[in-house]
Design goal:
The complex is a heterodimer of chains A (357) and B (371). With 357 residues, chain A is α+β, with helices and mostly antiparallel strands. Chain A contains 10 helices and 14 strands. Chain A is globular and about 65 Å long. Chain B has a 5-stranded parallel sheet. A 4-stranded parallel sheet of chain B has the order 4-3-5-6, with helices on both faces. A two-stranded antiparallel ribbon of chain B has the order 10-13. Chain B is built from 14 helices and 13 strands. The chains are: A alpha+beta (357), B alpha/beta (371).
Chain lengths: 357, 371
Amino acid sequence: MSELHTRESEALALIERVRARPARFKDEQITMAHGAGGKATQTLVTGLFVPAFGGDALRELGDAGVVEGLALTTDSFVVKPIRFPGGSIGELAVNGTVNDLAMAGARPLALTLSFVLEEGLSADDLRAEVEAIAAAAEAAGVEIVAGDTKVVERGRCDSMYVTTTGLGKIDPRASLSTGSLRPGDKILVSGPIGEHGTAVMLARGEFELEAPVESDTRSLWPAVDAMLEAVGPSLRCLRDATRGGVASALNELAQASSVAMVVREAAVPLRAPVAGACEILGIDPMYVANEGVLVAFVAPEAADDALAALASAPGCEAAAEIGEVKTDPPGMVLVETAFGGRRVMDMLVGDPLPRIC
Amino acid sequence: MKFVEEYRDAELGRVLAGEIVATVEPGREYKLMEVCGGHTHTIYKYGVDDLLPANVELVHGPGCPVCVIPMGRVDDAIAVAHVPGVIFTCFGDMMRVPGGSGTLLDAKAQGADIRMVYSPLDALRIARENPEREVVFFAVGFETTAPSTALTLKRAKAEGTRNFTCFCNHVTIVPPLRALLESPDLRLDGFIGPGHVSTVVGARPFEFIPADYGKPIVIAGFEPLDLLQAVYMILRQLREGRCEVENQYARVVPQEGNPAALGVLEEVFELRPHFEWRGLGFISHSGLKLSEAYSELDAELRFEVPGVRVADPKACQCGEVLKGVIRPWECKVFGTACTPERPIGTCMVSSEGACAAYYNYGRFAREREVV
């Protein structure tokens, strides 16, 4: 046997030093893990994209980049199946883009849309998505101002892919930043978690499970608007808990601000059907994607007002304070389990892989 | 969630923790091994450790079916997956296990048709739906999962499904436990017995542990209260000077196991003379292969399988971790060269592996009191 570590604290400190090193993208090929929103995605972004393109706006790694008072974002939608309980790819495209702007504290103004359509796609399916897009855009108060269409041979894409660009205007009440979290700040979540990812997983029909779960896709600007009105600059940072779920959103911000977070598991809103489906599949709902849930960080003295404002927004009635920002250990998210223990809640490595038994 | 949350009740947990503290002999150190990877996962996921006094240490055992698969077998799986026309099916957490040349996920990215399934029956269904393709199921697991593989093979044989085969890596729990107990550097006070395996094999096969080796064992369920109660039951045996097999998981585990499941295992599988375990080496009569009557469904006979033994990486101390000789953090490469993103050893791959569980969930300083 080779040499051993003799002190746990030293081994842990060494691990954190290794983790704090700038990510380097060393993989030989792209795997599905690079698109799953966890560590592999983060390595790709911070190890390849940011060093190549990085200006100040990109380095902030927000959901949208900010240039001269305008927020700009882009997103691609490749969901399968294109329609699922509670929503569809078109609705997702509008709300997802609008939400990226809202997380930067920007009032959404306009979108562009780019379609990649698969040869053979039924016109009715396309028409249904166009209508869904128009309705979602109207509900979110954004105008679609430009677009593009490409068609590829059958088999070269899966029904349709949608790419968007979103433009928004930074709200004067907002002063949000990913590096602004302070120990003592409260962590709010806007509604029950894991609904979208669970709905899509079940809609794929691979698990032969049925549960009354619908996607939560919605515009979060009304929720952001209400919180900005209530507490203005006391709102420190917002994050849209999409791919990788609430856990990934918290980890990204704990690292960006070099703070610790403690989440009280029992306080996290979670509906029984989602809890049940995740339990059976062996997946932690904290890592499951949402399309209408945000995580907000608020100065402690403004937390109650922010929570009341958040809970008044449509779809956010179940909003809750789930934890607090701490000092140690920096960059790490800890969970106080409902059972009374503690554990780390890390970034996901790749797609959540179900366990054998 | 009814019938689940009852076993996660924090108040009952505190009561049990109090009973444990009252049962511990002051100043004595206890090392208890949970054999099963599912237990390891529960301990970390719920922070069960935090409710135990610091002188009661849980040591993680060899019962993670993913962690014990040697690198050579993963390479064999990848070789079969690359055969033109093959659809290779496996459970999710096998996909990231490194062989000598990459993982099944890598092979998938290189174009092999590898599909994740939840049950061997899903693999058989894929075979029926793709009669022109060869569908291979990568079977891993202890007696817990082996019966479902056996039933699937029975059905495939009865249906005459000709394009379905099984790459069998099923293993049995007793031989590695015996090997562990024979190991001279072992220092354990008792065992938390594997709950799901016992639903199949029953409690009787574990009687050699108290009889031959003088260690108590309590078969336990997978909820946090189950584990606390099992710890309490072991400590009570030690306190009272008893040494026996007890069954905490009586709501699921019958004394005699599941005779129907044991019957189908007997029919479909036979013991290999020896099978290699990651980190533990070759153990006699510890692995299963398809019996003569099912040989036409054996992937190792239908395809050319390299069968090259790959030595565990030098730096890797998975073997010592699996035996409970060292704690995950004591390994020099733990968390630095070996991480869940780039695992060197299998203990870092599956969420049931001791190293991955510790890295993902337990990687922070705890404050616990010695009683």
